[in-house]
Amino acid sequence: MAELSQKRGKHRDDDPLSSAVDFLLANARLVLGVGGAAILGIATLAVKRLIDRATSPPDKDDVKAEQKSIEESWQELSLLKTSTRLQPKQRREDLSQPQPSSAQAPPCAPESEPSRDPAAMTISKFSPSPPTPLCLTLQERLLTYYQNHVVVSESEIALAKQLAGDIAHELQNYLRNKFPELPFGNISPSSTLHDGLEAVAADHTCLLVPLVLEPNLWSFIPGEDTIVNDPYYWVIRRTQLDYFPRGNSPWDRFMVGGYLSSNVLLGALRKVLVGSINWPAIGSMLDCLIRPGVVSEELLLEVQHDHLELSILIFPTAQREDQALLAKPQEGMLENLWQRDFYQAEVSKLQELDNADSGVRRLCLQLLQGICRHHPSLSRLSVSHLAQAILHLSETGTDWAEESLADRFQQVIIELIGYLEEGSLPCYFNQHINLFSSLQEEEIDDMGFALYNAVMAPELLLT
Fold it and tell me: Which one-letter DSSP state was computed for residue 237?
């Protein structure tokens, strides 16, 4: 650029127009800023070249210098444009600001007049015409999304249920043969796959392995009464050790400090799943490939069939009256504790409410499941989180008829934003339990930001 300026210097002194352009460029940065000055400089550069070419013969060195200057100018402009694309992320404290919402989709924009430019007419003649936009209400968009992206075929569900049932049967037989002294109950599936709530794909389920505990030797202690002081996590304590010392219960081998350890039990079952059971033979018999999850901390089986892939999580469970406890991998002070399970209570309550008023709570739950599975920021919202939000909203006496699906859908999103902002989702069955306790703050912020953006435009979640 400096060489080009020196060779053109003799023309600037004689040409008042060039002097005016130079003055404009010199002061453009003060008026327009760096980005505006760069764009204006590139535009005026072309005008200056026309003036120079009209007043002087072309020179080879000039041409090379001009080409080099053009490349440098475009590189600078591309860097400036790139830097302006970054947008600041909305802060977490702004998530709950009220925003107008409507169950109706925005009206279609009026069609603009066709271009009379001959070049545009030529392009449109040979390019395919865009599809005509449809003015759909949010209700119609939700139902369309449900049919196209959420509903799972009956054949796929039937195959997944059949595979899960066969694997549960084989696991049941092996445990009874390997540990005849341990009274395991009947292994049963427990997931949306078996409750008519599956969304997107029939690719995951759970198997519950019940422990038959002696009522007079084992006591369930609520989390509030333990050193953890968390109602979400319970302990199972061995009782009457004076009259029935250690060894009187077959489950005593899994005790730690007088309590039935979920961690020790999981470790024993992991050894069985990974190292003892002949999964290749079982998979060959079931026309599928079964692999135990070696890396996962959970008891996981990965099933590959010609028509689907299925992940099966296995949870030892202890139940007494209405308390269902699961053995899940935990860390720190929680590693020997048992986690409360509310899934069956949630599903039963939703079914009860829908039967009472012919509501669409279960349909709304499936829609939200499908959206969260497709959205990377919302994947941490589990079925339990969504079901609990719907149950809380049902307490307000709102109308859950099918024609109100869009309104209830938006209300659930707003309720979730409020819970995420507080960092707490109270359990419907025990207000002292925070179902968001296992989420990181960054995950909560990301989910809240994604849902907040969907308040003004719910269709963003349906793409």
Answer: E
* C-alpha to C-alpha distance for 213 and 182, rounded to whole angstroms: 10
CA atoms of 217 and 412, how far apart (whole Å): 44
Residue 159, phi then psi, degrees to nearest 5: -65, -45
> Minimal CA–CA distance to 90: which of 454, 358, 449, 348?
449
From CA 391, how far away is CA 364, in angstroms rounded? 11
Question: Are 430 and 438 within 8 A, CB to CB?
Answer: no
Secondary structure element (H or E) that encloses residue 300, with its range: strand 299-304
pTM of the model: 0.71
d(CA 284, CA 34): 68
Residues 6+ apart with CB under 8 A from 401: 357, 358, 359, 360
- In whole angstroms, give the CA distance from residue 232 to residue 223: 6
Q: How confident is the model at residue 335 (pLDDT cuts 50, 70, 90)?
A: confident
DSSP 236: E
Helices 138-145, 361-374: axis angle to 10 degrees equals 70
Give the pairing type, strands 299-304 and 289-292. Answer: antiparallel
Of the candidate ranges 9-13, 274-278, 388-392, the one whose mean pLDDT is the lowest: 9-13
What does the pLDDT read at residue 349? 96
Instruction: Compute the distance between CA of residue 245 and CA of residue 456 in angstroms, rounded to an integer.
Output: 64
Structure tokens at 161: 């249920």
Range of 88-102, 287-301, 446-460 with top mean pLDDT: 287-301
pLDDT above 80 (res 33): no
* Region label for 252, one of left (φ > 0), alpha (ψ between -120 and 50) or beta (otherwise): alpha
Length of the chain, in residues:
463
Phi–psi pair at 330, nearest 5 degrees: -130, 170
3-class SS of residue 234: strand
pLDDT for 93 beyond 70:
no
